[in-house]
# Entry
Amino acid sequence: MALADTFTRPTSLAPRRASETYGGMPRIDGAGMRALVEWVDEIAALTTPDRIHWVDGSRAENDALLREMVDEGKLIKLNPEWRPGSYLARSHPSDVARTEARTFIASEREEDAGPTNNWAAPEDIRATITPLFAGSMRGRTMYVVPFSMGAVGGPLSHIGVQITDSAYAVTSIGIMTRVGTDVLREIAGGAPWVRTVHSVGAPLEPGQADVAWPCNDEKYIVHFPDTLEVWSFGSGYGGNAILAKKCFALRIASVIGRDEGWLAEHMLLIRVIDPKGKRYHVAAAFPSACGKTNLAMLRPTIPGWRVETLGDDIAWLRPGPDGRMWAINPEAGFFGVAPGTGESTNVAAVETLWGNTIFTNVALRPDGDVWWEGLTDTPPAELTDWEGNPWTPASGRPAAHPNSRFTVAASQCPQIAEDWDAAEGVPLDAILFGGRRATNVPLVLEATDWTHGVFLGSNISSERTAAAEGTVGELRRDPFAMLPFCGYNMADYFGHWLKVGQALRFDRAPRIFQVNWFRKGADGRFLWPGFGDNARVIDWIVRRLDGTVDAVPSAIGRLPRTEDLNLDGIDVPREDLAELFAIDTASWLREADLTEEFYRTFDGRVPAPLWAELAALRYRLQRA
Ligand code: OXD
Ligand code: MN
# Structure
């Protein structure tokens, strides 16, 4: 008999001890399951919840949780006529984003966290956070959520368990991951799993009424890479509360990948299908707010081309025995930024959100639907803003929070690939690195080889301020778009990328490209139309993969011959095209200086091949 057949879910049982809640279950046994139950007991003893609820991931359970949150005033049910099965949450105004300053990597050795992370000694930070967690779930339900990143039992997948006292987190994890008793079967069978603990840090005294969005002014998001644990306190915001996502699938998974020979990346994943039906798989790393979800759901403007979505935020990449790089999207949903998502910018995302969506901090329409800046060109005449106040276009402030979000199942995307959750993933043909750069970085360039590609990735940066004013000095460096997400020393991570490249067959490794949709002319105008027209850049990349177009060598990499770009049907003036690919030597030499400055912050840990790339870049620039 399968575990699921014998497993009777002890929902909301009163006993405090998890082992008691498992009393009547004959088949969940084995060392793996015992370790889980002991751990749950240990966390319950520390946090003292009123109830323990083992989450089974069923539809009925999810519906009950949503109903409960509506009854408690934690969610607003949207008008089912417009948005069936959908809800709006309004966070506490102070709990609206990831808290990077409160995010810690507690590795045994400080140098293993590196200069780009906040480091804390494990025993010190445990001594700090343990008293915070003591009694932190009093008066609340403690949910135990077993989840899988990637298809359950898949060769590239990993599993974890999140303990949380937030029903909002449970329903979000249910969308973003695969939750259920089949994960428990893996654990019972001895599969390794990551332990994650989350508390909003708002215990309730007997009789005390709850608030709509419980949280705590004090916040800690702590990762223990040596013991594969995450402890998150004080925040209900997705990036801090859905621990499977940034905390596990990037920070902890990057460490697992370092030790096992694969890569956990902040990348979207797409399948591009050319007019002849040939398929290519592309992963792309972009810092936040650089159009990752838009590229993930691209609608090409050139006839005959199609894009299928595989993932919009995270990709796990592993060299296969065939010498190719295989990739999965370990998530099962999208936790996307709402503002800027509209009919004209990302119609596929808008269609994805037709229902079954949890919105957070968007505006509410009088008819019970939602709205955010950019959804339509003209705002509705009246709204309730994200803080619950009346709003009109004359209010002079955004109606939705700029980081307001939607949480929705990937399967709802109208262009999701049929095999998007295939356990073995897809073989990668190309990797793109991008950022928001008003100057210097051309529309597209190709790395000369893997090492040069790693050099490009290590130098990703994005303008911090309005792009028109962007100068080299105002760049935020975001290597591989992983600055807030790499769970170990970034210089070692560069080295790991080089090492993983060696596990690939040279003629089968994905080719690496740098792209920049955001270059501006001297007059501050965008030089490239972007959005669906970015397919024209993908078209060139694909023809490079097929070997049907030549590229022009330059000091910074291989550039297209402008006549090879398919510009049929759009009007990009000749001068703009020239500017899109112009190389300003003095400015690039200044960038090289910034790279040196950045590399020096790693105390000699940056791998020699990257220093060699920097020296070669300077040499080529000086000769140009
Ligand atoms: C995200 C982020 O939420 O990058 O995806 O912050
Ligand atoms: Mn992201």
